[in-house]
Amino acid sequence: MDKKVRVRFAPSPTGGLHLGGVRTVLYNYLFARAHGGDFVLRIEDTDQTRFVPGAEQYIMDCLRWCGLEPDESPEKGGPHAPYRQSERKHLYYEYAQKLLDAGHAYYAFDTTEDLERMRKEMKTDEHSMPQYDRTTRMKMRNSLSLDAAEVVKLLGDGVPYVIRIKVPENEIIKLTDMIRGEVSFDSSLVDDKVLLKADGMPTYHLAVVVDDYLMQITHAFRGEEWLPSAPIHVLLWKYLGWIEHMPLWAHLPLILKPDGNGKLSKRDGDRLGFPVFAMNWTDPKTGETTGGFKEMGFLPQAFVNMLAMLGWNPGTEQELFSLDELVDAFSIERVHKGGAKFDFEKAKWFNHQYIQHTDNTALAALVLPYMDAVNIAPEKLERAVGLVKDRCHLLTDFNTQAGFFFTAPATLDEASMKWDDNKKQFFTALATALQSLHEWNEATIEASFNEQVAAAGIKKGEVMLPFRIILVGGKFGPGVFAIADVIGKEDTISRIAKMI
Ligand code: GLU
What we know:
Blueprint: E1 6-9, H1 19-34, E2 38-41, H2 55-66, H3 89-101, E3 105-108, H4 112-121, H5 148-156, E4 162-165, E5 172-177, E6 181-186, E7 194-196, H6 204-214, E8 219-223, H7 230-239, E9 248-252, E10 255-256, H8 266-272, E11 281-282, E12 289-290, H9 293-296, H10 300-308, H11 323-329, E13 340-341, H12 344-357, H13 360-367, H14 378-388, H15 397-402, H16 414-417, H17 421-435, H18 442-456, H19 460-472, H20 480-487, H21 489-497
Parallel strand pairs: 1-2, 8-9, 10-13
Antiparallel strand pairs: 3-4, 4-7, 5-6, 11-12
Helix pairs in contact: 1-11, 6-7, 10-12, 13-14, 14-20, 17-18, 17-21, 18-20, 19-20
The structure holds glutamic acid (GLU).
């Protein structure tokens, strides 16, 4: 029988969640759902120097907002708890010991100064960045270079040490990637990474392999930036005797900046005026807040749909997919090898589509938190969003496009009104006529307006724009009689009254 599919998202809690991270979550989630599998959230917090308080909660909040909730997580628990690597610290030593015993790892006693000296002294023209590897390890202070008695003494004296992997010479390390096919690495170019640190914490490399094994992960999706670490992981799977359990890897293409080359960074977002994080992230040290898609006014469904298409295509023209449709349509074979350029205009197009397809009651509830006006009646907001939704790309646009329904405009575009005595007379008469209307709706308002136009012998075109500006403040918005209808009798008349 085939093993149950189990996938994991394994972020380090170091800051804001980049949209590339959310896409990794999404592909994990879709794959798990499509195969009736489990989706695990594991917090990789073994690097205490990079740990940022609040980042873990923030990651979970982002996944919740996106509707991509894990089946097992630090919050939810599960059969392989704990799901926070710092709480699993006691588990890793035994595996490091196993590697030591088999000669695949060694103790290294080098101090920071020793390492710096090595980098300086062993630097040559063709070796500009010497690493701790097969070429340098015998010149360093470790259990391969020192004699056994000295090693025993150092350990006995409690001299701090790390445990490093001993990467073999001249081996081709291969792995099969679901997206890239067979990928090979020359072991001679791989350095002897630290597996266990002086504080007893494992590094990412050891912890990721041990936990993927213990948590029975079958498929591992992660960003392409982790591909250079893959040979270390393959060696560990082999040396720990688990190679037949190694997950199938999928290294996902990078999300690229819209202009030029390279990975889309937070700085690109700041420079070009769009978010790269899922939700607002406030750095607890500096207090600086970096904007997120949520707060910018994206619907999570639109954000997720847009991310699905960044690096994958369904092979058809269809672009709009609900999460359930994505579960059915997604296939790893159609994930691209090359990076995907991020296009903010396209992201907004997705959001616009979702805004159009959301019914007005639901949309009003979503828009409400973004409105400046207070005491907004839900029914009135519902009608207002219905009138302006075709003009909105972001939930934040509704404040600009529909704010005037709730608050009289602070300033009017007077230049465009071309106000004169004739207009003043017309609007004075209109206010009286509107006052006497028993039924207030688009048709009755327009009929009354037409009657006043006829009575005043004025051109309708001359007073339509001033009427709009009186109600809205500027030359924008949906049909003016529909606007007056939603604004209501009392408010419409009081806005006219300010001009006469
Ligand atoms: N902890 C790694 C990260 O921060 C996980 C990489 C992986 O999925 O193996 O992205």
